[in-house]
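Task: sequence design from structure.
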């Protein structure tokens, strides 16, 4: 009897895990999806830093999953503005985690949602509502240094400056 109980318990745990894994599957981010992430970040922040000549974004994708045809992407973004006159000196910027949801249609992917956690005292609770625990933990690690994305932006800024100063 004890053997039968243990076997049933093992089977029920296995079935539960299988159902959870089937309901939400991992996704590989394509170049097209990554470009939509970049375009979304730029579009959502386009009115920020209007006093700068050029804005740049970089992002770090923690992971993505798919459920019912909707792809959810968890990321950390850095958005900065620069002026030609001040070169590589950041004039304005911010960094933040975000969740982006995409759906596939006949033309590619369509943005379904762009959401950032609340600021201030609501940040932790809203982040943990938006992100799975493993990605939320990574956000906490990346917050102090913008996920090291500034180095990539600096390369883009130098490239932009070299083209505009000719």
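Answer:
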């Amino acid at each position: 009897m004890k053997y039968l109980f243990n076997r049933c318990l093992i089977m029920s745990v296995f079935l539960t895990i299988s159902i959870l894994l089937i309901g939400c599957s991992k996704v590989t981010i394509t170049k097209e999806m990554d470009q939509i992430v970049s375009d979304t970040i730029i579009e959502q922040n386009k009115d920020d830093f209007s006093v700068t000549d050029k804005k740049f974004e970089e992002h770090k994708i923690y992971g993505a999953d798919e459920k019912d045809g909707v792809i959810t992407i968890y990321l950390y973004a850095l958005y900065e503005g620069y002026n030609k006159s001040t070169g590589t000196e950041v004039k304005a910027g911010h960094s933040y985690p975000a969740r982006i949801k995409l759906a596939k249609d006949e033309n590619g992917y369509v943005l379904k949602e762009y959401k950032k956690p609340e600021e201030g005292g609501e940040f932790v609770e809203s982040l943990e509502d938006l992100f799975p625990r493993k990605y939320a933990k990574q956000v906490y690690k990346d917050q102090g240094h913008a996920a090291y994305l500034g180095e990539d932006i600096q390369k883009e800024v130098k490239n932009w400056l070299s083209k505009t100063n000719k």
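Helices lie at 2-23, 31-45, 123-130, 133-142, 150-164.
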